[in-house]
Each structure stands twice: as C-alpha cells, then as structure tokens.
Amino acid sequence: MKDAGVPSRPLFLRMLARSRENSGATFAVIARRFRQRPARYDRMFWLSWTLACVLLAGLAAVFLDHAAVRSWPPAFSALAEISTPLGLGEWYLWPAAAWLLIANQIDWSGLGRKQLIAVYNRTCIALFVLVAVGLPGLLTIVLKILIGRARPALYDQYGAFSFHPFTVKAVFASFPSGHATTIGSVTAVLILLFPRGKYIFLLLGFWFASTRILVGAHYPSDTIVGFGLGFGLAVMAAVICARLGFLFRSNPVGLPRLRRTVWCTPKAERHLSSYAVHGQAVTLH
C-alpha cells in the first residue's frame, strides 16, 4: 500500500520506466545468445543468388532498359498505378513498430504461459519485419545517393546510363529501386513465415516490383537489383534469427524453417520447446 503522502509517478514516467526495463531485458537476451551460441550459419545460396541477380541485371541493362522507356497499354499502366504504392515501406514498418511499442508496455511477468508465448512470438515477428524490411530500405537509400542514376523521365536528356553520384535529388535516384527492394524483402518474409504459399508470393512479388517499370519510375535493371537485394538481406536476417533461436531453426538444405511453435497451433503445442523470454524459462506444450 502506497503512503498517502507520497504521490505516484506520472503516467509518462511509468511508461518510460517500463519501456526501458523491457528494452533492456530484450537486448540482454539477444546479447547473451550471441555470446553463448556458436557462430554457425547454414550454407546458403549467396554466391549463386548474387551472380544470378548481377547476370539478369546486366542482360536487362543491355537489352531491356532502352526498350522499357515507352508508353505501355493503358490497362497495364492503370493497374500498375494502383499496385505500386504497396512497395512503400510504411505499409510494413509502421505496423511492426506500433506492435513493438505496445509490447514494450506490457507487464510480461503478469502474463500466463500461453499469453506470454503468443505475445513473445508476435513481438519476434514484428522485430524481424522491422529489420528484414527496414535495413534493406536504408541500404537502398545510401546506394541511390552513391550511384545517382538518372530516372527514365530524363532518358531523352541523359540516356539510360547517366550517373551523378552524391546528387541528392529524386530524379537521380533510379538505381536500385527502393520499391522493388521493399517488395523483395516482403516477399522473402512472407515465404519464410508462410512457406506453403511461396509460389504465389513470388508471382505477386514479381508483379509489384515490375510496376515500377510500367509507371516509368525505374529501368528493369533497377528493379531486378532492388528485388534481389531486398530478398537476399531478408533471408540473411532469418539466418541470423535461426542462429539465435528466434522464430526460425536451421535448415542445411534451404531457407531457414519456421519453428513449429510460432503460430501456437494445436499441432505445434504437442512439441515441447523452451524459450527464454525476458529471462524467464517458458515451456510450450
């Protein structure tokens, strides 16, 4: 019971303290796993993926970039205009960030076992999305500034291969495509979280990335490199999560596999798995 003469702390200070406590515990768990777990990563397709992206982008630059500067059929252009906004990172980063803010105010010690695991898994997904989609987007911004490729709108003036490094202007930010990078990251995230729909996600990802060509914002080579960069970095984030035991488990023959307990289905609950959530040992069953 609080003393009548001692006023309680303002709500903002209580929220700030809870946020600091939860954040500190989370980063402590991550740091501890980095220290304690061996630095073993599955052998992935990095070289093949990089070579394939470079080869496709090179072929596109030679044979497609010039041809892509044209007026597309109105139906394709109209559909592309409707679809292309889904390549904006805000659609994916803001919900993930909002959940992390909410989770940072939860009293984890007061949750029951199933509630704790549900909140824990969703927080891991939000953090994974924030890293897998956000970091490739930041890297793309840096590359745009370093490369400074003129957009198709300036084709008549500069051609398809005009580069103006460190020109911080939107008209010189064609390579790589930021929208395509985001779409590549989101496609990888969806495939990793819902592997049964991988072919559908790939087809949708290719379409949304190609809308940047149809609306005249990017060359084909811009979108190929952007999509490949986003997809590859998202997979790399999943590989690191698998090493640390978050969301994924190692898979020696392909992409990291989602842990059976992530979605807390009845089938998943039959498999025992231990987690450390903010220092607590939690058993799923």
From TrEMBL:
<feature type="transmembrane region" description="Helical">
    <location>
        <begin position="44"/>
        <end position="64"/>
    </location>
</feature>
<feature type="transmembrane region" description="Helical">
    <location>
        <begin position="123"/>
        <end position="147"/>
    </location>
</feature>
<keyword id="KW-0378">Hydrolase</keyword>
<keyword id="KW-0472">Membrane</keyword>
<keyword id="KW-1133">Transmembrane helix</keyword>
<keyword id="KW-1003">Cell membrane</keyword>
<feature type="domain" description="Phosphatidic acid phosphatase type 2/haloperoxidase">
    <location>
        <begin position="123"/>
        <end position="238"/>
    </location>
</feature>
<feature type="transmembrane region" description="Helical">
    <location>
        <begin position="91"/>
        <end position="111"/>
    </location>
</feature>
<keyword id="KW-0812">Transmembrane</keyword>
<dbReference type="Pfam" id="PF01569">
    <property type="entry name" value="PAP2"/>
</dbReference>
<dbReference type="InterPro" id="IPR000326">
    <property type="entry name" value="PAP2/HPO"/>
</dbReference>
<protein>
    <submittedName>
        <fullName>Phosphatase PAP2 family protein</fullName>
    </submittedName>
</protein>
<feature type="transmembrane region" description="Helical">
    <location>
        <begin position="225"/>
        <end position="248"/>
    </location>
</feature>
<feature type="transmembrane region" description="Helical">
    <location>
        <begin position="167"/>
        <end position="193"/>
    </location>
</feature>
<feature type="transmembrane region" description="Helical">
    <location>
        <begin position="200"/>
        <end position="219"/>
    </location>
</feature>
<dbReference type="InterPro" id="IPR036938">
    <property type="entry name" value="PAP2/HPO_sf"/>
</dbReference>
